[in-house]
Input
Amino acid sequence: MNAARPASDNSMTERARFEQLALPHMDAAYNLAFWLLRHRADAEDAMQDAYLRAYRSFHDFRGDDIRPWLMKIVRNVAFRRLSDRKRARNVISFDAALFDRQSGEAAVWQVPDDSASAEEVVIGSGEQATLRRALSELAPIFREAIVLRELEAMSYREIADLTSVPIGTVMSRLARARAELRKILTRIETEDESNAM
Amino acid sequence: MRAMRCDSAAELIGAYIDQELAPEARREMAAHLETCPACAALADDIRHMSGKLAALGRALAPEDLEGRVRARLAIAEAEIMDRPRLAVWGERLAQSHFALVREVAHLPLSARFFARPHFPARRIGIKH
Ligand SMILES: [Zn+2]
Output
């Protein structure tokens, strides 16, 4: 790993040291945040939030490889946002149930919920777009398993550490995620075929 | 070597493809796939899908995100500098104390987990 902590360099500020270690992992971190939230602007906010949190607790970080520690913070921030959204949506549904008949205020519906936004996730067309769409339909915990394993090429041990579950749970989540993904893909293909007729 | 059944094979095929099975389970799986066309087809399917997923590549962060993150960190740094040093140290002490309590609270659970005679990963034959 080239992310070893430059411990001997006293001329660097803490922020410079943090940036040197943490910024090279932005691509991996953003990929995870994006696939959990399935929303660009939200993923960007989550990244800002996570990096700020990481910087503020940088003095707690021990070891040479910042990546697992940083990814864990990103993951926690993203999952918190997912549950906040769910709460917000419940409140909105309640309000909507009360007021929808009168005006149908558009503004309250702008809060991103946990349903996939096709234009955010499905870039382009063809096989890759179908695969992205299928992936976006998985439940967050299964989406995460696929992203970490297939897109980030992490080992089961690394995934277990990041997600704080036993390695056996990683295996069963992945098995389930793959089975679900195959099902969704079959469904989408069938839909597309019947649409084409 | 006992024969592997299809239902347990289905659960393990992904781990087999990911090369995450311990040697014995890997041999059992290989033997099963030799003799079971259904599981062999499933394995091909998963391998195929895995390749396609890897080929998707990452969702790319916008180019200006790094700059925005840096700017935010600079503000946070200035805020820390502005505060009296004593307050910062007090806060850190409180934070690290909290972190310590949190770690200790986790310890018995994980210690218990790893001390269990039937560690699930071993039972299902995943390598460590
Ligand atoms: Zn079989």
